[in-house]
Amino acid sequence: MSAPDAGGVILDRRIVANEWLNLADDATLPAAGKVIVSLKRFRAERAGLDASGLAVGVRIPNTEDVSALTLELSSQPLLAVEIPKFADGRAYSQARVLRERCAYRGEIRAQGEVLRDQLLHMSRCGINAFELRADQDAQDCLRAFSDHSLVYQQAADGAETVWQMRRRQAAAAR
Asked: How many other CB atoms are there within 10 angstroms of residue 88's CB atom?
C-alpha cells in the first residue's frame, strides 16, 4: 500500500489534502476511505470493490482508448490519467475525450510528471486535479493557472478564444 502523495493536490484550482490512497495491485484494501486502483485491478476485482464500501477511483494507462471505457467507468468518482513523461500528451487527449465526448463529470486527476508549466494546458483539456511531487511548491503551481489571460484554441474548459472575443467586440461596435 502506498500513502497519499506527499507533494499535495490541486483540485479545481485550490490546494487540498490528498484524500485518495494510490493502491498497488497486490496491496490489501483498507477498511474505509478512498482508493485509486489500476484499471487491471478494477476489472479483476470489480464485485469486491463495489461491495467494499470504499470510494474507488481508477488509474487509466495512457495507452487506453477511454471512449471504449465510458460505460465501465462512468460511475467512478475519480479517473486518474497517467503522465509518464512531460513530452507524452496522450493523457491530455484522454481528458478531452472523457469531458467532451463521454460527458464525464467526476474528478480527472493527472498523476506522474505533472509539471507547473503544463497545469493550465492540462486544465483546459479537462483535467481538474493534479498530484504534485514533494519537491514542487503548491502555491507556485497554483499561480500557473493565471500565467496566460488569453487563449487561441477552443478546449474542454469552454474559455472564450481570442478569435471569439474579437468577433464579439466587432459585433458590439457595429
From this structure: 13
**What is the amino acid identity at position 92?**
Y
Q: Is 2 within 8 Å of 98 (Cβ atoms)?
A: no
Is the alpha carbon torsion for 155, 156, 161, 167 positive or negative?
positive
Q: How far apart are CA 77 and CA 90, in angstroms?
A: 21
CATH architecture of 9-146: Alpha-Beta Barrel (3.20)
Q: Whole-prediction pTM value?
A: 0.87
Q: Parse the chain into domains and list their residue ranges.
A: 9-146
pLDDT digits (tens, 9 = 90+) for 127-168: 999 999 999 999 999 999 998 887 788 888 888 888 888 899
**96-120: b (≥16 Cβ within 10 Å) or e:** bbbbeebebebbbbbbbebbbebbe
Measure CA 53 to chain center: 23
pLDDT in tens, 47-94: 999 999 999 999 999 999 999 998 999 999 999 999 998 888 999 999
∠ CA(132), CA(70), CA(105), 5° rounding? Answer: 55
Looking only at the bridges linking them, the beta strands covering 55-60 and 34-38 are parallel
